[in-house]
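INTERNAL AUDIT FORM
Audit reference: QA-55
Scope: verify that the stored structure record matches its stored sequence.
Auditor: D.O.
Record contents follow.
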Amino acid sequence: MEVFTALVDEFQDRKFFLIFDQFESVGKTSTDFFLNFAKFTMMKDRFHILVSFRTDDRILTDISKRNIFEDLRTKIKRELGGKITELEGLSLI
């Protein structure tokens, strides 16, 4: 909690945008950190968090990565009231 408190104190007068990129390569500890941080800052309207998670076949065929993805997705929606946006690749046409 000390890390979270320090971040909130440091940015108390400014907007704060945190990006977690390539979240498909992290483990349970990192997802727990993210969820705790998001819950801690949820009431602060100046904090914005973006998480990217690749969901191609290479990732979702790995059962442990698929479980992390599904668990994170569920918790973001249910516990944090977050929004999920799925991006698709560009076509040649």
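Auditor finding: record pair retrieved intact. The CA atoms of residues 4 and 40 lie 7 Å apart.
Action required: none
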